[in-house]
Amino acid sequence: MNTKNIKALKGYRPIVATTAYDAVLAKLADQSGVDILLVGDSVGTTQLGFNSTVQVTLDMMIHHTAAVSRINPNALVVADMPFGYSFDDYETIFNSCRKLIQEGGASAVKIEGGLKLALTIQRLVDSGIPVLGHIGLLPQLIKIEGGYRKFGKSAEEKKSLIADAQALEAAGCFAIIGEMIESEVSKKITETIKIPFIGIGSGPYCDGQILVSNDLLGFSTEKVPSFVQIFGKVSEEVSKAFNDYKKAVIERNYPNE
Known about the structure:
Elements: H1 3-8, E1 15-19, H2 23-31, E2 36-39, H3 43-46, H4 58-69, E3 76-80, H5 90-102, E4 108-112, H6 118-126, E5 131-136, H7 142-145, H8 155-171, E6 175-179, H9 183-192, E7 197-200, E8 208-211, H10 213-216, H11 234-250
Parallel strand pairs: 1-2, 1-8, 2-3, 3-4, 4-5, 5-6, 6-7, 7-8
């Protein structure tokens, strides 16, 4: 799977995307035939114990991206640009993206932000770095937003979101993720732009869907967002395995003859 394939899926079939942070999970997800493996900065909250994605550094992202890319997945590997880097000087931004691709093995980078970052994204694309856009709820700006909410409820926000999507398309993004956007606004964006619009908590009218793997697997120890459908009970199985192991050791049933 490459960026050209992803773009070609618009209007053909829905795109399937999820997150991966290590080789084991990446291999299992890839075997299912998902289209995109996003090494998200959500690794901070799902794997590293942080209370937000803000604490995730570039070195952390390179480390986890490399773990995913080492399995040589069929899916497109996309790495998140961590907090703050997208608003740095262009040389720093470019070098950060280059490290995610050269050292991390990513095939593309994801950058949060719309119209304000369009010129930067255009320069990156012109330099040969594929970019996946991200609009709507931007987790890296959660300290400013003050919490999670739906976007696009007002006419002004709707207009702004459509403008963001169009600007990112014009800048050369191969696709855009829309997070926590009102369903009808997502539908309008999907119909307006010619590149795929992939939703998370943004309703059924998008060109595809992405969910955090820990959430959809039932592996999360925290309450998952209301839009998440849990497709597995991994945490229950893991807890049972640890408890069974503990019991077997204490009762001297493991190891046996």
